[in-house]
Amino acid sequence: MRVVIGEDLVLLREGMIRLLSANDFEVVEAADNGPSLLHALVTHKPDVAVVDVRMPPTFTDEGLRAAIEAREKVPGLPVLVLSQYVEQLYARELLSDRGGGVGYLLKDRVADVSQFIDAVRRVAAGGTAMDPEVISRLLDRRATDEPINRLTPREREVLGQMAEGRSNAAIAGRLFITDKAVSKHTNNIFTKLDLEQSDDDNRRVLAVLAYLNG
C-alpha cells in the first residue's frame, strides 16, 4: 500500500516512515512543506496520504490546503490528517466534499502504534478514522435546524462510535447493548439523516460525514 507523508518535523516524519514501512506500507514520498506535498499527492496518487495540518512556509494550514486541493485533482484520494490540536474548522472543511476515505487524529495518537496503523488502513479502504477528542469537540457545537439534532442521545452515541470506525459488533460491546439494538439504531440514524438506500458501508461513511459536518 503506497503512502505519501506530509510532515515538517524531522523526527516525527522519520518515525512515521519507519513505522509504516515496518507494517507493510511503501512510503513513496515524504514532503516537508505544502507545495511539495501537493506535488507529491498529485504525482503519486497514493493509496493514502498522512498529512500534518500546519506546514511551511507559513505554518497555518498548508498541509490541509494541499490535501483538499489534491482531492479535487485526484477524486477520492484518502487522507488522514494529523494535528496537534482539535481544529474544528479544519475537520469540517476536509469532510465537506463527502468523498469518504478521511480521518483526523491528534498527533499524540501516533504513539499508539496499533491505533495509528489501524487508522491509516481504515482511511485507505475508504472509511473514516476520527479521534474521539475531535468527535467530542464537534458534538459540543449546537444548532437547532440540522438533521443531526433529530437523533436521540443513544443514536448519537452509536454514531459517535461509528465515527471512530467501529463495527456493529464492536459498538454493541462498547455500549453494552445487543447487535440487534445497534442495527435498529443504525437504521434510525440513516432515516433521520435522510440517507437514501445504498450499501451499508457507503451509508455509514455518509452518516459519519453528516454527523461531523452537522
Strand coverage percent: 5-15%
Give the class from helix and strand content and strand pairing.
Answer: alpha/beta
* Uncertain stretches of 5 or more adjacent residues: none
* Tally of DSSP helical segments: 10
Q: How many DSSP E strands?
A: 6
Order of helices and strands: EHEHEHEHEHEHHHHH
Q: What's the Cα radius of gyration?
A: 17 Å
Overall spatial form: globular
Largest sheet: 6 strands, parallel
State the helicity in percent bands: 40-55%
| Spatial strand arrangement across the major sheet | 2-1-3-4-5-6
Q: Compute the average pLDDT.
A: 84
> How far is the N terminus from the C terminus?
32 Å
Keywords:
14% strand; alpha/beta; single chain; 51% helix; 214 residues; 10 helices
